Here is the input.
Amino acid sequence: MKTYRVPPPLFLVVFLGTVADPFRGVTAPVIFNLDPAQSSITLSGNVLNNAFKEQGPGSLTASFSGTIAADVTGSTIQFIGGSAIDALTSGNWQPQTGGAAGSAPADYGVTAATPFATAFAAARNILVDVLSGPLPITNGTFGSSQLAFGFPTNATSGVDYRVTGLLSASGHKELVGLSTNRITTAATLTTSAAGETLTLPVDADFFLSLLSNKDTLLNLKGKLVATRSSIQGPVFNLIMVSNQTVTLRWQTIPGQKYQLESSTDLNAWIIEATNLIASMNTFAWSTNITHNFQFFRISY
Here is the structure.
């Protein structure tokens, strides 16, 4: 919390938020926010050695949102679990939940055909975690082959499937287990004035038993890009009073929503503005002076 004092009329401006901590030397877990525009993973694989094909355009590729949790020091990074890497729905794909005939929203939709049967599968509620031991960071890069991706046991990640033809079956399979990343491309952690950017290449295999033991291979391949802003809370860089108007300007996280309130006694607060969304790294707000003593606070 910071307090700002300006000439009479007197205003006390308070911001509520997290004070930015130095990026290096962090001992507590930090959270990176996934960028869906840059985080995309493609599903491939086979069932009974018959390769997956698209059910429709884009059905084998999903964007991801959510968060990645890590311990970061000046020379190492460790993925400690608790990440929520969440696939976004890519369309309506067969079958419905539980394997019933028809289509429903899903993250991925695949089909595979044999001379004797046709299979449809829809992956839904895909939530992935990432784990590792401490990984040395050298010039902003670290080994991605030491990452393990998996499905949290408390999630509902699963595949609904339906097979028709001489072989017929339908149902739902939960996705469980861990897979070590098999990619050799290095992961990166880069720093700029805006914050840190974490890039993780992904290439992980998982096996399912649909018609027989481990007859289905799922491969997830792509990359995840997540950022952590250097601005962890609102930081005011201008407080100006002119012609009975006060103007507040603060540093922001683009896309973040802010709420501004005022008070005359620090007990009762009135909402002055809400859903203030910054498109750049600063945001300015002005209002008329209404009291000799007035307090403002901003939160997000």
